[in-house]
């Protein structure tokens, strides 16, 4: 099974890119972030025409997550949003079971400027995600937690790390939160297969970042122990970043053995 994650940076603005990528790579499941559209504006018909069933958690102008599964695969929504802050209305987490694999699609807050209220919210959200992750591990079932984590876990995950020390995506508190989450028993799929390679999933629109390969690795796959040994392959579709009117993120994917 191929599972992919892609921060589309506006599902309607990038719809031609999304549909082209789906047709080219044909993932079984695609988790999308930053839809930037309310529920009623999700292009459901176009997604269905592309051969996918979709569930989504939209929000006007900002945020938003969706899980797409190939037509014929059973998809059942299980969780919408994270517990811990009932007043939180940001659409950042969606969870579903697809063919017996629980998939959590997440869009972790950016957190800038840091320090400040947005950074505090990011750390609280990380704590809430970690709490849900622990619950999922305790279920002793196959789980994938994937999406835009807005964190570069190590210096090898960022071009010129010295420039990012005080940024909310690279501050020590955020990296520690990611490592604490992973230490529950999760496997970072990309780093398991490619421990030393330079791999980026985000390239800014400015300063020719893509052309210079000056990027960040902020989109991640965390796998539960039940899936760790089933991981066959993983990678990024870097070339998609070079398409016209594309997202500043690139799709990331894993292949799991049956």
Automatic annotation (TrEMBL):
InterPro entries: AP_endonuc_1, AP_endonuclease_F1_CS, Endo/exonu/phosph_ase_sf, Endo/exonuclease/phosphatase, ExoIII-like. Keywords: Hydrolase, Magnesium, Metal-binding. Residues 4-249 form the Endonuclease/exonuclease/phosphatase domain. It is an enzyme of class 3 (hydrolase). Its EC number is 3.1.11.2. Its cofactor is Mn(2+); Mg(2+). GO terms for molecular function: double-stranded DNA 3'-5' DNA exonuclease activity. It comes from the Bacteria. NCBIfam families: exoDNase_III (TIGR00195), xth (TIGR00633). Belongs to the DNA repair enzymes AP/ExoA family. This is Exodeoxyribonuclease III. It comes from Salinimicrobium tongyeongense.
